[in-house]
Amino acid sequence: MSATLMIRPGLLDRIKRYSGIASDDALAGAIGVSRQTLVSVRDGKQNASAQFIAGVCRAFDMSVGEVATLARSTDDVHTDAA
């Protein structure tokens, strides 16, 4: 079983709304990533890197626990047929 840190669902949109940030470009700049990376992570097409999560934490004075959640996958679990 493997585990991946994922941005909490809806968090990036809430941050944008409550911070008064007008565009994805501005939010990406605050986090320190490209707009393309921001959109890919927000839309679930890309996992958030440690750099991305740290950028959100620094930019908005949040803890890792407030920003990310642990997603577990059973893809790595194999069963043997007898």
Automatic annotation (TrEMBL):
Name listed for the protein in its UniProt record: DNA-binding XRE family transcriptional regulator
Domain HTH cro/C1-type: 26-67
MF terms (GO), sorted A to Z: DNA binding
InterPro entries on file: Cro/C1-type_HTH, Lambda_DNA-bd_dom_sf
Organism: Salana multivorans
Gene3D superfamilies hit by this protein: lambda repressor-like DNA-binding domains
Keyword annotations: DNA-binding
